[in-house]
Amino acid sequence: MSTTRREKDSIGDVQVPADAHYGAFTARALDNFQLSGMRAKPVFIRALALTKKAAAEANAELGALDRKSALAIAKAADEVLAGKLDAEFPLDVFQAGAGTPFNMNMNEVLANRANELLGSAKGAYKPVHPNDHVNLGQSSNDVIPTVVRLSVIISSRELVKEARELEAALQKKAREFADVKKVGRTHLQDAVPTTLGLEFGAYASALRKDVEELECSLERLGELGIGGTALGTGINAHPKFKETIVARLNGLTGLKLRASKDTVELAQNMNAFLQFSGALRMLVVTLARTACDLKLLSSGPRGGLGELILPEVEPGSSIMPGKVNPSIPEAVEMCSYHVMGSDRAVELACKAGQLDLNTNTPLIAHELLGSIELITNCCAMFREKCIAGIQADRKRIAEIYIKSNTYATALTPTLGYAKVAALVKESLRSGKGVKELVLEKKLMDAKELEKILREIA
How many CA atoms lie less than 13 Å away from 292 in the CB half-sphere? Predict the structure, then answer.
């Protein structure tokens, strides 16, 4: 029995594995683009199948496709959604521009599986044809950007959930540490008194604002160019196809998607992805900055600040016994920097659109979906293995606070900047605290001084 079947396309004959549901176009792409060994994320494949199912249903509703074929295509799409045909999508994420191989891979798989359901053989493409029926009213120009938008929106649900849970964990620590008065630092130097609770509350607030920006960018991604076909012109699509398929997609996903009023613009302009990528970048900047602060505050523990005690997750050295490193914050840093690099790739890809089309959508999809997955996992790890178990070394924090002169600024309204500056310098020379010097020089009585110090932070 032959292990291949022969298919013919506009270029010539192609040998396709006999049992494959994909066809000639996919086989050529599989041979041409063996670059990274990475395949599209499952959410991308599912979003592509959803789009094809909605298209078949919309075309049937509009009378452009017979209901028997539409039902078979929809059933085949359901099998893809259930993960039954995962092996049929072998293409590299780096491939021909505009994601035409991705689009045709799905068209061929759904056509062949639909034909099987209708009693026909793979490769015959009768009665269902990949281009004429599965791709009816569509083009890679509108399908792939739509699928990227869908897959980003769908996969971001878990990211938003994890980011909000991380924010809640930080807020919980803010409440726990609300009474821990400590040295505040600017320029890495002693500044004014603060509390550990205020610091953790600020981390939580920053993360909350970043998630809000992320949600705003997701709203923009809900505008779809599907129905625009080639260049966004709508050529070969039913006049009502655009609105009908979007309505079908809303029904299938439960989302609030909307048809674009300017599909030509959406074929050219990928800045909605750039906005989302920028929101991801802001979020990871906050994560990295928080992680770096935790590393500093837990440094030592004897030879550094040692104000925080991070959960021990692994031995810290292959040569230094007993050493424990801030491994989780270090991993958060690396994840964050990787996403920052991906954001740069998305920026360049969005910029590189030329004339009537941006052909870089496969790269945009790869970078955004990879970043979403990475940050989602990163937020969960940070919360579970670090933030939830952080302890304050209250004794160490108090020792540092007592030795510092951070409270001196609070004396400025009473004593004046110049006099307080002189007291601080004298304190550093003599080893006496500013409080001690104030009382010694009778610049303020003890009752007034204590009142001011109690009100700090």
Answer: 12
Catalytic residue among 10, 21, 120, 187: 187
More confident residue, 320 or 188: 188
**Residue whose C-alpha is closest to residue 102's, from 54, 156, 138:** 138
CATH class of residue range 142-395 = mainly alpha
- pLDDT tens per residue, range 363-382: 999 999 999 999 999 999 99
DSSP helix/strand/coil, 39 = strand
Distance CA 49, CA 151 (A): 11
CATH architecture of 405-454: Orthogonal Bundle (1.10)
Strand 391-392 with 189-195, pairing:
unpaired
Strands 258-259 and 308-309, bridge-based pairing:
unpaired
- The domain limits of the chain are 4-124, 142-395, 405-454
Closest CA to 152 of 7, 8, 346, 334: 346
- Asked whether the whole model's pTM tops 0.90, one would answer yes
Rounded to the nearest 5°, which phi and psi values hold at 275?
Answer: -65, -45
CA–CA gap between residue 362 and residue 144 (Å, rounded): 8
Q: What is the pLDDT of residues 190-212, one digit of tens each?
A: 999 999 999 999 999 999 999 99
How buried is residue 454: exposed, middle or buried, by Cβ count under 10 Å (0-12/13-18/19+)? exposed
Residue holding tokens 């990295």? 288
How far apart CA 17 and CA 32 sit, in angstroms, is 16
- Which H/E stretch holds residue 224? strand 223-224
Q: Annotated catalytic, 317?
A: yes
Model confidence pLDDT, tens digit, residues 43-74: 999 999 999 999 999 999 999 999 999 999 99
> Which amino acid is located at 134 in the chain?
V
| Residue 342 annotated as catalytic | no
What size, in residues, is the chain? 457
**b/e 340-356 (16+ beta carbons within 10 angstroms → b):** bebbebbbebbeebeee
Q: Yes or no: say if 276 and 221 are a contact pair by the CB < 8 Å rule.
A: yes
**For residues 388 and 390, what is the distance between their CA atoms, to the nearest angstrom?**
6
Supply the pLDDT for residue 457.
59
Find out whether 302 and 269 touch, Cβ atoms under 8 Å.
Answer: no
Domain 4-124 CATH (choose: 1.10.10.60, 1.10.275.10, 1.10.3210.10, 3.40.50.2000) = 1.10.275.10
